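Obj.: predict assembly geometry.
Materials: sequence records (below).
Method: joint structure prediction, all chains together.
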Amino acid sequence: MTVLRCENVTKLRGKTPVLSDVSITVPEGARIALLGHNGAGKSTLIKSILGLTRLSGGRIDICGHAPGSDAARAAVAYLPEAVAFQAALTGREVLRMFADLAGERGFDTGAVLDRVGLTEAADRRIKTYSKGMRQRLGLAQVLIGQPRLALLDEPTSGLDPVSRHDLYAIIGELAARGTAVLIASHALTEVEARTDRIAILRKGQLVADDTLANLAAAAGLRSTIHVRASGTQEADQIAAQTGGARINGSSVELVCTPHQKMDRLRQLSGFGADVTDIDITPPGLEELYRHYSKEEAQ
Ligand SMILES: Nc1ncnc2c1ncn2[C@@H]1O[C@H](COP(=O)(O)OP(=O)(O)OP(=O)(O)O)[C@@H](O)[C@H]1O
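Observations (raw structure tokens):
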């Protein structure tokens, strides 16, 4: 079921379009990474979905409700990039307050604080929290009431690798329970393995929206095939016959487009026992991102 539907969303700032005809849908349980350079329009799109900024054109629908309506607000949870809480309150008090505001009287603050790793700090004032701890508290607030849609703006900025890992694990659990998750991010490598679809905004236009594999195939980006040979002579022979690059030990590296891949593998299987192992590395998100950004710039 579609949770979020943006249709031809356009936003002008003065006469300058900061969002141009953006159409994107997010079904329940999906994790979508929203990527783009500084100023590409990510925050503007998120603010539009929250109903905090008026559209110049197009429409947005959240579970059948208009952005900013009571029903939409009840369905959406938001984690801003620079999350700010009342410094004099404790983590537990803040979470209780948000749960009460959301009408979630039965909300188990202790369990959620535990889930985000804040049990020990639960009764300390927010002013003593590090950036990472505030971010974790922000995520705890997102978990109140099982939202239909979670909008996360740069959720891992300022977090150490372990905290990032924990945060994506929690996002994964949220999505597994059916929440649609839209994550605006600059951190390409970390969203690569942890989201289901990649959407790229460039200068207010949506230039890509698909799985990483489909986008890579559509762009014709090349994969790398690492071939291990049974010995150095065999590796030399494989490199000579395939045009591959001879690398250290008894390995050969070949690059191929999506269309060439199966032919390459058939060719390699012709070497029989001279080939002892094959690894294929698909193009990564950074390469893809560069491709779609460049393509649009031309
Ligand atoms: N309140 C505002 N008034 C005028 N222009 C604005 C306002 N907010 C954003 N903009 C402009 O809208 C465009 C999109 O900005 P937006 O903040 O949505 O980008 P972003 O992709 O979120 O960038 P970043 O990655 O830096 O957060 C930019 O050109 C920005 O200068």
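Conclusions so far: The chain has two domains: 2-217, 222-282.
To do: check interface contacts against the pulldown list.
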